[in-house]
Amino acid sequence: MESVINRGGNGGWMNHPAHWEDTVKRVLAASAAMLLVMVLFAPVGIAEKPHRAPSQVINISELKYVRVLLYLDDLNYEWGSVNLTENTTALCVTVGVCSAHGIALNYSMSQYGAYITSLFGVAAPQDFSWWWELLVWNHTTRSWQEAPKGASDLWLTGLESICWCPNSSAPPVQSPYGDSAWSSFRGDPTNSGCSVLRSPKRETGVGSWDFGNGPIDSTPAYADGKIFVSTGGIYNWNTMKYSQPPHLYSYSISGYKKINWSAETTAAGWQVSSPAVRNGIVYIGTSDGKVMAFSEYNGSRLWTFDTGPSPTGVTSSPVALPSGTYVAAGDGLLYALSPEGKPLWNFSLGGPAYMTTPASSGPRLYAGSDAGVISCIATNGTLMWNRSLEGKIRASPALSGATLIVISTIYDGWLAVRSAIYAFSADTGKQLWNASIDASTSSPAIGDGRIFVGTNSGIVAFDLKGARLWSYPTLGPVQCSPVYCDDAIYYGTNTQNGTFYCLDVEAAPFERWDFTPEPRQYLFSSPIIVYSRAYFCSDNGNMYNGGTPIGPLINFTVEMPERCVEGRDARVWVSLTNVGELPAFNLNVTVWIDRGTFFEEYWALNPVIIARLDPGQNTSVLFNATLKPGTNRLEIYISAPAVDYDHSKGQIFVERAPVQRQTPVEPVYISILILAGSVSVISLILRRRSGWKPNEKK
User: Fold this and answer.
1) Distance CA 94, CA 117 (A)
2) Of all helices (H) and strands (E), which one includes residue 513?
3) CB atoms closer than 10 angstroms to residue 192
4) What is the reported pTM?
5) In CATH, what number does 55-61+552-655 get?
6) For the segment 405-458, what is each residue's pLDDT rounded down to a tens digit?
7) What residue spans define the domains of the chain?
């Protein structure tokens, strides 16, 4: 049946009963919506949210990797990394690293799993007096520990670190946080004064830290994210006593750049012995003839050993090896000490040892003396060979493979007159060559087949066969020992003050940059290279660093609201990017909140740790914090081993929440009455339009 639609003067309204019902439904729906809006927007208070613990959400790439340390001894070890696409075993990772680095590896399989029979060409003995042991790195205790399973049964998921080493020795001092530590006077037991890391070729940026404890003539040491500095104390020349005794300091350069601890040492004059670090112990010699050992972690003194009486005490630096700690003293003896400070043996050097630090390679030590004698001693105290030279040996001998480099100097009283450089076979003591140089009190640096020596007139370079390559004049005597790193030499000069230089030696030498510390004082402390930064100390009592790091370098931005309401989470985004050229490990992101003065009322959100951030990689961290009313000052700290420290400040103002009130019932009642009235009126209108009358019967 066809529907009839009236399009008369009612504006096109459809009068079919079916459309009346549809119209009623539309009106009722509109009225209900109006009622809902009135109820929802009736005046109500903001209910206070329950306090939630801060939460962190981290967004980081799915890159998985394993760090592998293959360790024979302190002079023979190799780091490697393997990227994982899926779970694999420690054995597969080890095979991959050895193959990539050309390291000899042999292993056998049995019903008990894999067994490493030989590494670096060194085979484990058949009597099992020692064997190649698998270790894993514990990030909580920051130490190597025995693996819970064998190599073929230990499945890795990524971000782990493993190590192979002989179980007959103590766990390696090397940690995954840094492939190369500067743990002794010249960097390593060979006394090479050479860093394998890249040097800062960009414009320098210099920071300084004042220890406030007198001149610093010794060289710092670095291990596990900390620099160890020995200060000279403050001496009162009127009373001839120390008003402040010398101290040994532990200083974090990869965290919040703060002093971790300081420990008092003793002295009877200048402190020139530099610290050495191994297996959690810091060793230092003193000018009153003592050798002291301190805990790396809290600075507690572990023991003190007294050498024999002498006018200079211990001015050379300790050498810490797996076989023991060795110290050349002013009484003319070379001492071997156990990690507990017990004497193992001593050896006569023929004369006092003044400033010269022994070098070591494998089972041998090389030590000089003021008698001009260079001696090769086995680590059990047996003399292998010695040679007598003209003058005094006060520089530290250095090794390059099978070649031993020694500098001797003729003195007129305390004044150096002239010097000579010698090369010997480290095995037999046969002299290979020698050359005259200007007067020198500096230890040589060896790198990339070249030898660099500081003299009273400049820097001189030789090749390992004795050919003089070049001489570079300086404005003052080089009385510290230069350091070589990536085609650059770092050294200090002295005139009436000290200036620190970076000299490019890739081709013809030229100066990259220089820095003169203020207040101006002498530079006797030698530099060290730590992750592409040069650290050096001055007699003004300050430590400095120079060079923009090419290694890990983290830039970060922070986004946070300016205002917030009590009870609502404040969302703080921290975005990080590694703009350096080396990966950053274990980035620690922390948010501190301060509502008082001088941190009277403060707390910190749980930190987020990012295991690794590769060059060019970026990631974001979200902190949700429920803050208290008023002004909340926030400080975001970024710290990590071997990464430049940085932090950012900001604040959020938090408004108090309005007072809680119940929803009033009057608007609801009025809305219901309006809705009911609307329905009645609309129904009456629709019925009249359809021709219906109240008393009409169907």
Assistant:
1) 13
2) strand 510-515
3) 23
4) 0.64
5) 2.60.40.10
6) 999 999 998 899 999 999 999 999 999 999 999 999 999 999 888 999 999 999
7) 55-61+552-655, 64-166, 194-546
